[in-house]
Structure formats: structure tokens, C-alpha cells
Amino acid sequence: MVQHYNPQIHHRRSIRLKSYDYNQGGAYFVTICVQNRECLLGTITNKRLQLNEYGEITDQVWNHLPHHFENLEIDAAVIMPNHFHGIICTGLVSKPPNFPNPPNPYVNSKCFDIIF
């Protein structure tokens, strides 16, 4: 059964910027949550995530996205037991020559290098 969005029931609010064109290239932070926040992607054992079959599938799908979508790069991602975070980069071009590097020495991100 498909459940359609009903603002009277779901009370979702958009966090999108009203004036921003999301069709343009950029780096986008994506979060995907498992329905009902069930821990279906793995378990935490000894402070480490142990992916199960569904977590492994999530990882495989994430890593194959660039093979299915032209002009898409993936960047940092993390799988948690009941949700997933990732950064996708679309339509980016290389940084201009002599453009300064980001000030944060801890940033290790392909997309960040492209943007800055």
C-alpha cells in the first residue's frame, strides 16, 4: 500500500532553500532513514558497525551510483543501523587555478577539493 503525503497527518516541513535552484550542480548532503527507524542495516558490536545483508546492499548501491548516473560523483558516506548519510556531487567543475585550498586540514573529500 502506497501512503501519499498528507500535510494534515505528516506535518513535514521542507528544509529546502526557497530561492535555490536544486537543478544546478553542487554537493548535496543526503540522509535516508529506514521506515519506522528500525535497525535493518546492521548492528553495533564492540563500538563498531557490523553491516548485515541489507547494509552491504546499501553500500554496494551507493558505490555503484556513479555507474548509473552520468555527471555524478559520490563522496563521504556512513551507514548506521537505521539510516544512511552521504554526499553526492553533481555537475561540478574543477576549481579555478590559484584558488586557495580549504583552511580545514582535516577535510579529505574529493568534492570539497572540486568546489574549493
| Shape summary | globular
Share of residues in helices = 10-25%
Largest beta sheet: strand ordering = 1-5-4
How many individual β-strands?
5
**Distance between termini?**
45 Å
Low-confidence stretches: 102-109, 112-116
Taken in chain order, the helices and strands follow as: HEEEHEEH
Largest sheet: 3 strands, antiparallel
Question: How would you explain this protein's 3D organization?
Answer:
By secondary structure, this protein is an alpha+beta fold. The protein has a domain at 20-91. The protein is 22% helix and 28% strand. The protein has a 3-stranded antiparallel β-sheet with strand order 1-5-4. Strands 2-3 form a two-stranded antiparallel sheet. It is globular. Residues 102-109 and 112-116 have low confidence and may be disordered. InterPro entries: RAYT_transposase, Transposase_17_sf. It comes from Coleofasciculus chthonoplastes PCC 7420. This is Transposase IS200-like domain-containing protein.
Question: Could you give a quick summary of the protein structure above?
Answer:
This protein is of the alpha+beta class and 116 residues long. Helices cover 22% and strands 28% of the residues.
